[in-house]
C-alpha cells in the first residue's frame, strides 16, 4: 500500500484550515439554522464519516477527493463532540480541553509504541492509518475545545482569536525552519489550525453585534466549500499528471 496522506505543502494547509472553518460553520448551520440539533446532526455526520472512512481505508493509495472529504467530515464530527459535551452535558471547556489533550497524548503514545514513528510520510499500513485517523479526530475535538476556551471562556473574541492562533502557527513554522523536530511541529500546527479555522469561520459568519462580519453560515460554508473543491480538483489533476509522467519514464 502506498502512503495514504498527501504531501504537506502550502495547498495542504490552506485546504486544512478551510475544512476546519467548514466544520465550524457547517455544524452550526445544521444544528441551529436547519434545526436538527446537536444530537441528530452528530449522528448524521458520524454515519457519513463512517462511509468516507470506509472508502479511505479501502483505497490502496492517496485519493485526493476521498481524503479531503474525510477530513471535512472529521472536522464536523470533532466539532459536534465538543459541542455535545459543552452545550448538552455542560462540561466545562477547561475540562474538555484537558481531557482531549490527555486523550490525544495517549493516542500518540500508543501509536509510537506500536509503530515506533508518528510520521505522516509512512502511513503505508492499515494499522497506521487507523492510528492516523483516530489522532486526526481528536486533534479536531481538542482544537474545537481549545478554540472555544480562548474565544469564549477567556473572551478573546473572534478577531483576536484569529490573530493569536495565526501567530502561534507562525511561531511553529519558524521553529520548523530553524530545525525543530518536523513531526512534532507538524502535529502542533495541525492542532492549532482547528481553532484558527473556527475563529475565522465565526468571524466571517457571526453577526456584527457579536464581533463578526455577518456573512452568515450558509455563505461562509458555501464559499469555502467551493474553494476546497477547486483546490482538491487541482491537486487531483496534478497527481494524475505525475502518475502519467512516472509511467512514461518507466516505459
From TrEMBL:
Transmembrane segments: 30-55, 62-81, 93-114, 130-150, 156-177, 184-204, 210-235
Keyword Cytoplasm recorded: no
Keywords: Membrane, Plasmid, Transmembrane, Transmembrane helix
Pfam families: DUF347
Organism the protein comes from: Azospirillum oryzae
Protein name: Membrane-anchored protein
UniProt entry tagged with the keyword Transmembrane helix: yes
Amino acid at each position: 500500500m502506498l502512503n495514504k496522506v498527501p504531501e504537506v505543502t502550502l495547498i495542504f494547509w490552506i485546504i486544512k484550515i478551510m475544512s476546519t472553518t467548514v466544520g465550524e460553520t457547517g455544524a452550526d448551520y445544521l444544528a441551529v439554522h436547519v434545526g436538527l440539533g446537536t444530537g441528530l446532526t452528530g449522528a448524521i455526520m458520524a454515519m457519513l464519516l463512517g462511509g468516507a472512512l470506509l472508502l479511505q481505508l479501502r483505497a490502496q493509495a492517496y485519493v485526493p477527493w476521498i481524503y479531503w472529504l474525510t477530513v471535512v467530515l472529521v472536522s464536523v464530527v470533532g466539532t459536534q463532540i465538543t459541542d455535545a459535551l459543552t452545550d448538552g452535558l455542560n462540561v466545562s471547556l477547561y475540562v474538555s480541553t484537558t481531557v482531549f489533550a490527555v486523550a490525544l497524548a495517549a493516542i500518540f503514545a500508543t501509536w509510537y509504541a506500536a509503530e515506533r514513528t508518528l510520521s505522516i510520510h509512512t502511513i503505508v499500513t492499515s494499522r497506521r492509518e487507523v492510528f492516523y485517523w483516530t489522532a486526526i479526530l481528536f486533534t479536531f475535538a481538542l482544537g474545537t475545545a481549545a478554540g472555544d476556551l480562548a474565544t469564549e471562556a477567556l473572551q478573546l473574541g473572534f478577531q483576536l482569536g484569529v490573530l493569536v492562533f495565526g501567530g502561534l502557527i507562525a511561531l511553529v513554522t519558524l521553529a520548523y525552519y530553524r530545525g525543530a523536530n518536523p513531526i512534532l511541529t507538524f502535529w502542533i500546527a495541525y492542532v492549532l489550525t482547528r481553532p484558527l479555522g473556527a475563529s475565522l469561520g465565526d468571524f466571517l459568519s457571526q453577526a456584527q453585534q457579536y464581533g463578526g462580519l455577518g456573512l452568515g453560515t450558509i455563505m461562509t460554508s458555501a464559499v469555502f466549500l467551493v474553494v476546497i473543491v477547486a483546490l482538491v480538483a487541482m491537486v487531483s489533476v496534478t497527481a494524475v499528471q505525475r502518475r502519467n509522467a512516472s509511467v512514461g519514464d518507466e516505459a
